[in-house]
Hints:
B: alpha+beta; Enolase-like, domain 1; 5-stranded antiparallel sheet; 3-stranded parallel sheet; 11 strands; globular; C: alpha+beta; DNA polymerase, domain 1; 2 domains; 5-stranded mixed sheet
Amino acid sequence: MTGDPGKRGERLPFGIMGAGLATIERRIPNEEPPPLPPNPDLRVIGRNVPRQNGREKVTGAIRYTGDIALQGMLHARILRSTVPSARVLNVDLEAALCHLGVRAAITLAHPGNRVTEYVRYVGMPIAALAAVSPEAAAEALALIRIDMQKLPFVTDMDGAQTASAPHVFAPDVAPNGHPSGFPAPADLPLRGNVRGPTVERRGDVGYGFSTADVIVEGKYRTHVQTHCCMETHGIVADWRDDGLTVYISTQFTAGIRRELADAFGLRLAQVRVIVDGMGGGFGSKSTLGRYGWIAVALSREAHAPVRLILSRAEEQVDSGNRPETSQQLKIGARRDGTLTAIALSSCGSAGVGLGAGVGDMASSLYTCPNFESTHTDVFVNAGPGCAMRAPGNVPGAFSLEQSIDELAEQLGFDPLALRDRIDPSPVRREERRIGALRFDWHRKRRRTGAPGPIKRGVGVAQSHWGAYVQLDSACEVRLMRDGSVEVLSGVQDIGTGITTVLAQTVAEVFGLEARDIVVRIGDTDFPAGPPSYGSRTTASITPPARTAAWHVLQALFRAAGPLLGTMPAKLVARDGFIMAGHDPAKRLRFSDVCADLRTDSISAIASRQDDYGGFGRQYGNAATAQRDLGGVQFAEVTVDTETGVIFVERVLAVHDCGRPMNPLQIESQVHGGVLMGLSFALFEHRVLDPRTGHVLNPNLEAYKFAGARDAPAIEVIVLQNYQASSATDAYGIAEPSIIPTAPAIANAVYNATGVRLRTTPMTPAVVLSALGRRPKAEASS
Amino acid sequence: MKRFAWTQPTSLASAAAFAETTVADAMVALRPDTHAGHGAVLQAGGIDNLDLMKEELLQPNLVISLRAIPGLDKIEKQEASWRIGAGTTLMAVAGHPAVQARFPALATCLNQSGSPQIRAVATLGGNLLQRPRCWYFRSIAFDCLRKGGGHCFAILGENAYHAVFDNEVCAIVHPSSVATVLVALGASVELTGPNGATRRLLLEDFLVRPKQNVRRENDLQPREILTAILLPNPSASVRMAYLRLGEKQAFDWPLVDAAVILELDASSVCRQGVICLGAVAPTPYRPRAAEATLAGKVIDVPTARSAARTALDGAMPLAHNEFKLPLIETVLRRAILRAANPV
Amino acid sequence: MISRRTFIPRSDLPVAAARPGSGAAGDRSPKEPETATRRDVIAAQGPDAVAMTLTVNGIARMFEAEPRVTLAEALRGALALTGTKIACNRGTCSSCTVWLDGTPIVSCMILAVDVGNRAVTTIEGLIRDGNLHPAQAAFIGHDAIQCGFCTPGMVMSCAALLDRDPRPTRDAVLAAISGHLCRCGTYPHVVAATLAASEEAKS
């Protein structure tokens, strides 16, 4: 173990700042930079450095995909199915191709092909074309003639499981596994529309329940949530004889390049993927998608650049969604709070897609020797689901954290005390402690019910998310002779602020300010970066950035040593100077040293090393750290028991993400998680018409998500939780921050009203029904 | 949006002369099998027209902008009433000192309608004439009764936001919250024809129930322009309140809203009460039996409670909107009490 | 301001207005006008592209567009001012907010041809003499930005508020942004930024 000559021993900070921060010895690869001290000892990392592209964003200068206009660019439109299930007998493009403005048209449904001749949801692409203007494309689209044989369909998850339900897929053409974001196991049986089950088992739940003193059980239901990125999916595809360039609103440039190369028979070197401004993804822009393929195919066909921007209605119907779920959760415990068994039986529907599993929360958050989860995916004739911010764990937390609350009550425990008993994480323990103090939890819990219809309550819930790392993440750092510094990576900034964090990371190494660093990302011409999903971006790309910068600095030191008459190893870079130790007399301006470089620039590329202490799990190019990411949120709500309106007044979010790189940006992301979680809890519901399969609210008016007036006062506390795992020790925050919000609100509603809401969204209709409020008029019937 | 020609006449007469159809008629004329542009329609702020045209539910040949016609955005005091030009923006109406002073319920309602950006453009007339928000009506995929089709999809479909009164034929709710208040205030509309002739009728009578005509929400005729809304000057003894309840705290359509106008005598006894409920019926709904219970009473909690209960008489909730009944009761009770005891 | 004009005698209206692509209405015989006289003519533009002049950020800009083109589309298309964003295209998210004579409106819900001589201010026009508007600077300082797509519209609303009311209350800020949707959740920082900008303005 210690004999590896490629590694050296180092002591790294380890533990939580303010709660027993210590150091730990790690063997780290020799090419890795020296350990990074805790944030208080740093000058740029850990500070609220303003967003690197903030000026471009507040002035509207930054370019999003839809802002790109290439010479001779065509405009594409997709013809989509208006029926939920049909066999396509004929697609006639002739009239459309005769339209003067049309340059290319393609068919996506191929009669006679057992896989593609069926349409399976309203909104499914059937054909597409590219024309000289959006107006011409729209006109020509109306000229495409489709002959279809309508087939029976089913849109509700319960109905789809009955014996008489029409089958969404024949078994041999059903999707098997999931292409994006989150895993759906392959090769499971399909009976009718029900695929699975997937079973996960530890110990013996039968025995576990038999030894329980208390058992709680509940049925939970969560509805479809759509991503609602403000920027709809969009792509500009430019197919040339010598290669393909696409501008696409994506969470993963490197992944899109691989997909495009595979799909169109190109070499990786022939494909370039670019994204600058990116208007939100939340999981839905992880892959190329059907629309992306369509734009590229049309560009190839037309020999011209093609722009395809989805309309809001297309976005809401066919760009992915968080699957609906139904969960039966049963938990047994002894009087001392120890869990004896957890049994979760769930089904979920991602429409014509897969991946509605919810078991990770129940399986992973608490210590329990006996666990069993059984999950089935149900196909219905609706647009496909895909990963959405903390897939699985958002609905999974909604059931688990309410059940734990229920258990605490039955056992006579405070909800925090029970979690202290069953949650093995020292990090969440500290988060509960800090949070309870700041929130004034114990006093607020004791508050007795106020008179009048408005009831007030508080609730708490916890987060669990894997600390993901993308192993094939790389970054280049270049230093120019004039002292300017560039960071280059394919990684994309989807709004989380990785641009700024990369600048901070590199500036810290060179003793410069973040604003001195030019960050060029979102382009596959640079070393491949990680995806911006799974909350893994910061953990994956900041260590290589620091490492690459450190290598460049060593080269600079070699040049500076003779100038300062000092051994390079004794030099430090600080405050814009290269100095010998801390001798202020022996120093040179950073830029003066650079001016003396023999070459115009020096550069280094580094890639993500394994976590210094090893990973928890590794799968392909991804891995999870040994510790999970925690998070505890406290919510205070008022419930108007006469109207059923829940208002969330305050949320305290206590989180950890390893070393916080930029606390203000982290706070921004936590706000986003809390608000999306609140919105999931209270408002969001994609409504499908059961008689026609149409989405009735494919807009941002009837599909409701939280506005500024719905936002609570949100306080964010972020721990500094050093794990001695990488060159930066930083992790993500996007997903942990949404997971506990909905159950914290539901638990607060219970605390306020004594009524447990097990369905999202918790609209006035749902609340009034749960409260048993019936109309009092005699005449109503 | 389909192509159309556009014109901006400078006189009411020519605008009216060329407005050969109403938006409602143009939408009915647009059968799914024709895809033919149809008719010339009037447009003031244009918010609802654009919405309909973007969905291709409305495909006029000609859009006649009313914006260049002088005088449509005046607010002026007349003998016994205030006359508000139909072309006045919601923002201008809400900000007018007389409206704030004399019709506070209207100002409250206006400030909760749409967003500031919408209120800066949308006009009072356009707000009253906007088409319903029913999601079946608003989708080209549904050839519903109101668009000239065969049946109402909402009655047996997804109807949580739909009517609980007067919903046997078509279950829309009237889209204008402002109308809820204006009906309660006894407002009239002034309609001007191409020869300059005007007719005036109570807004309440101008609005059309599904049983009268399911293809329109009002009695606007072709070649007729809604030019003004007339509000009878309230006496000093009148108190009023407007209250709405939505799922979201702002920029959301109400689940239920209520306007209450009380005329109190010197000893706080209610001489007359007017109640209008919105978002519960295809037209602003006046529960007259409930109004009657207020007369001669001191407005206190039991009176308000009793009137609110009475207001539910005749309600026929659909499969998904029974929850509106307790909401009506609560919102109305609170509105009555707020009118009697302004905060 | 319209230049190219088509004078349409009333009785010819349906035919004249129905150019190719606008739908064939020629098969319907127009009804005789009941009260208007046949002598009435109106100046109609389109449906083909017509020349328009819009005053945008203080500069008169001429371009051609069909009457159906919205202000948002004209800004982003013909005028290449892509800072204005279209996200819902139905006036429900306010991402496309610009000022019309200084008042925020949603540019996706007004026809370009209907703007007339009112002054349009877009996010590109908010910088004065190279200086950010105080709202813009505060947005950066308070990180009231994430993906940035709703940001130009949000900035326009907050800047208009500050110009109108240099010391707004928290409630006034919430009212000013009540029509905006932001999926990243920037609202708390937007409110903080705007209030802070007002404090800087008064100090």
